[in-house]
Amino acid sequence: MGFYSRMPASSADMERTFIAVKPDGVQRGLCGEIIKRFETRGFKLVAAKFVQASEDHMKKHYLDLKDMPFYAGLCKYMSSGPVFAMVWEGQSIVKLARMMLGETNPADSKPGSIRGDLCINIGRNIIHGSDTLDNAKMEVDLWFKAEEFVNWTPCSQAFLYE
């Protein structure tokens, strides 16, 4: 089968993930750099908003960490300033986005990853990304309403997917 007779990936093959630039990333002016990295990789932005989340909202977002000693401080910090919340779409995006982010602790992150290149401290690791498909769905639903999504097809799609 030749290149031109292949159809691009169907929407059924696509995953969505939630990515948020945390208050430290916003304050450092890194939203554009992070968007650039996801666009350059070939992922499609389908929803985005600049918000200051309440502490209650952050408690819902990080509910799976409620028994951790840092939970209260994390929720307070994440509600201390604006967050750039986004939903990205692409094949295997949850797994690939986590690789792009690097380890939670920037000191353990490889050069080339967002945290490996742009962070020093675990408490200021600039970005959140869903860690599983189930968490991605929950986080996307927590942050975005259905009418906030834009359905579009980038002209580059045929050059990204077989």
TrEMBL record:
GO terms for cellular component: cytoplasm; lamellipodium; nucleus; ruffle. GO terms for biological process: CTP biosynthetic process; GTP biosynthetic process; UTP biosynthetic process. Pfam families: NDK. Signal peptide: none annotated. Its EC number is 2.7.4.6. It catalyses: a 2'-deoxyribonucleoside 5'-diphosphate + ATP = a 2'-deoxyribonucleoside 5'-triphosphate + ADP; a ribonucleoside 5'-diphosphate + ATP = a ribonucleoside 5'-triphosphate + ADP. ATP binds at K22, F70, R98, T104, R115, N125. Major role in the synthesis of nucleoside triphosphates other than ATP. This is Nucleoside diphosphate kinase B.
